[in-house]
Amino acid sequence: xxxxxxxxxxxxxxxxxxxxxxxxxxxxxxxxxxxxxxxxxxxxxxxxxxxxxxxxxxxxxxxxxxxxxxxxxxxxxxxxxxxxxxxxxxxxxxxxxxxxxxxxxxxxxxxxxxxxxxxxxxxxxxxxxxxxxxxxxxxxxxxxxxxxxxxxxxxxxxxxxxxxxxxxxxxxxxxxxxxxxxxxxxxxxxxxxxxxxxxxxxxxxxxxxxxxxxxxxxxxxxxxxxxxxxxxxxxxxxxxxxxxxxxxxxxxxxxxxxxxxxxxxxxxxxxxxxxxxxxxxxxxxxxxxxxxxxxxxx
Length: 298
Fold this sequence. Notes:
single chain; mainly alpha; two-stranded antiparallel sheet; 2 strands
């Protein structure tokens, strides 16, 4: 398995049905990037890889997420997100987000990985809502409630998943209520995901490896020529890093430096899920994701 220059363009753990066959290969992921680190110009190389992609728009701009988009007379955030008329992740919503970001076949994933994938979107949405960016948060918070993303939720109800909690959050967002007013509901949604994750089980190290692979893929899609060209994917990648930290905290055999490595990775989003003018270069994010991989137990 190769990562770009360092990561795959598509995650084989998702695109093949033989998920178990990929597990050994995935353990070599960090080693592959570690070898690349022996060379020079890592960050420049990562940025060039992003610049070479021709299937991404040159820029979508944060203007598509402007608060004016939800002014009087305009569509509410959730309505606009559901219709795919907002920027960033809108392309993914319309062309493949039902299968998973960047066209992943989410329904082929084991439940623990599928839950982690959905949780990454939710964490991005909650972070944006709390940051006062409901117009950005809306599409991410559709994942636990919309029919488009129903495959992500398959099999979660018996584990205690409570869609009503997320419907309350979505309704509050659509009504224009500030996050501070509905913080108890936001916290309840997070607690429900944590409960479902505990019951879903799975190997936390394997889940974190999956999240690092997915994060790396999405971040490469998000950045073009050193700028954020796809805000939705940038936000997704942030959410996956946050979920990785949650899974690391649940490990009984976590190395002492694992959470520190993930914290360093999360810090590479300077404003959390909110897009910035100068994002961390692709190469640095991929290198830190590899560092996280190195810290995981076999």
